[in-house]
Amino acid sequence: MTWEGTSTSYAFRDPYLLAFEPSFIEVRNVETGLLEQIIEGQNYAVYISIIENANIFDFR
């Protein structure tokens, strides 16, 4: 996989790997390695909760 930037943190939600940059989130499919989406923004914070084996991501 060739990443678009230098990630500061990662999150996994099958089948997607989210790579967090200071100004965007890169979403990749781990099965294909393909870039699915880039979400642009500023100063993302990641809050992760685990409820009955399901990860819930809240991006603010």
TrEMBL record:
Tagged with keyword Nucleotidyltransferase: no
Alphabetized InterPro entries for the sequence: CNH_dom, Rho-type_GEFs
Keywords recorded for this protein, A-Z: Guanine-nucleotide releasing factor
Protein name according to UniProt: 72_t:CDS:1
Organism: Ambispora leptoticha
Highest taxon in the source lineage: Eukaryota
CNH domain location: 1-45
Gene Ontology terms for molecular function: guanyl-nucleotide exchange factor activity
